[in-house]
Predict the structure.
Amino acid sequence: MLYLWVLLGLGWILFWRCGGINSKDGLKKKGPQAVEFVLDQKGKIIKMRLCPEAEAQVNKSQALLDEAKGMFERIMKAFSAGEVAQLESLVSPELWRILKADIENRNLQKQTLEFSLLNFLSVSLLACTAQKMTVMFISEQYNVLKDEQQKILEGANNQVTRMKDVWTFQKEGKKWRLMTAESEPVNV
């Protein structure tokens, strides 16, 4: 039932936004056709699908979210492993300097950061242009900071933390780079 409401809500939004409807009974409006409805003889919707143009937009958004998820994983793994050179190619110069200083400080204090991304609970595209996108990640992570004797300084063994991260990426050529990042724990 929830699935039906989601589909109907998406259909209404796309219909309203794009101003179009096609149906078996010939009702049409001029302009782009975002959603196609198939009606039974009583006028009830029996099938709804995205038109090719709208489906292409959904697929493009999904591709951007998949790329953002991959960037999130690569950046978090590189940061926790102290891979400064890899981070330089993934983040803005300003952010790279901040992350590099944090890694150098960790190394001076002989600390290690253990990170595991367990899963994404949600990934949402908050804003998007051709050159910039802002994405919100809700994820479950394992983060533990240890000293050289393996004593835990932050976090706890086997403790899963739910995090909310809002990251803004900017496109440079064909590549996306992380420009800003905000992170906070999410209370369960």
Q: What stands out?
A: The two ends are 26 Å apart (CA to CA). Residues 1-32 have pLDDT under 50 and may be disordered.
